[in-house]
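Predict the 3D structure for this chain.
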Amino acid sequence: MDLTLHVSWVMKHFPFLRRLVDSTPEWIGTMLMPGTKGYFDQANQLGAQIDEIMQDPSILQNSPHETMYHHMIANSEKNKAGLPQLNREWLLHEGLNLRFAGSETLGNSTTTGAFHILRDEHIKHTLMEELEEAWPDVNAPFGLEQLEKLPYLVSFFCRGLVTFNNHGTT
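Done. Predicted structure below.
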């Protein structure tokens, strides 16, 4: 994905390249520009999800949690001004943009945060204590909503996103 990130910026500023990459067979695209492999992998995964949803929209109602498709489809059904007509291509490109949007900054912040946790015994001990108390059986499911209620963990990551991410990607 790292190699693909810079390609997404090029495609943003030169839309004809996105159309070219989309219409190029995957094997040719990855041979000519190896950095597009991540783009094709992501596009294939999201494309399969979109095809499934477009064939049977009730899949969204049976989903255990909301997805980006819930919001995209709900907003398009409201006929909000400025939104293009709902189709596979639009859903695919919006999905790819969302998936790539925060990958570099979040990845850097998370890596730096993990480094600080491992380096500082007090932080590591406090986090482990909080997690072990809240989640005694690691084999049992533990949802995001439960993680969000752990004050030390949440404050560490909130502060980490501000502290460890001091550069932009534009």
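Residues 104-163 form one domain.
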